[in-house]
Design a protein that fits this description.
5 strands; 15% strand; 24% helix; alpha+beta
Length: 159
């Protein structure tokens, strides 16, 4: 079993570590600061921010979700509820009849966006989620489609 080596004189003084810590502090001292003056400034684009999830439509106004339920399966806090039904006027056999996201449970992890094969669900930059009652924080399919809007489909798989 190897033994621990003895520290030399400089290492026992901790001077190299103190100098490294001070240099790190001084570097961060002169970086530009980013402060959002909320609530006066609301429309500032936030980079690398994950807000609430939303469903999207394609250019033809159809819901891109095909109710495969992968997002429901992968959701860690079980915040997504999907019920599928057959869709008559769509080239895909099924779509979501019910698509609810409980924002009280959602942790905005982004797993639903990553696993979606149809690119039907995206995390938005919406972060203001205040409501007078708990029931209003369960978003249904129509509300999620309104928030998500239209995203062009680069592949045009279904038409």
């Amino acid at each position: 079993m190897p033994t621990a080596r003895q520290l030399n004189f400089v290492e026992r003084l901790y001077l190299p570590e103190i100098v490294r810590g001070l240099s790190h502090t001084i570097r961060h001292l002169f970086r530009p600061k980013f402060t959002l003056q909320y609530p006066e400034e609301r429309d500032v684009p936030l980079s690398r921010f994950r807000g609430m999830p939303a469903l999207v439509r394609d250019e033809n106004g159809r819901t891109k979700c095909v109710a495969c339920k992968l997002c429901e399966f992968v959701c860690p806090p079980v915040a997504i509820l999907i019920e599928a039904h057959e869709v008559a006027d769509h080239p895909v056999e099924k779509g979501p009849k019910v698509f609810d996201i409980n924002m009280l449970r959602c942790i905005m992890c982004g797993y639903c966006e990553e696993v979606c094969p149809e690119e039907a669900i995206f995390l938005t930059e919406k972060f203001e989620l205040a409501a007078p009652s708990r029931a209003e924080l369960v978003f249904n399919k129509e509300q999620l489609l309104e928030i998500g809007g239209v995203r062009p489909d680069p592949y045009h798989k279904w038409g």
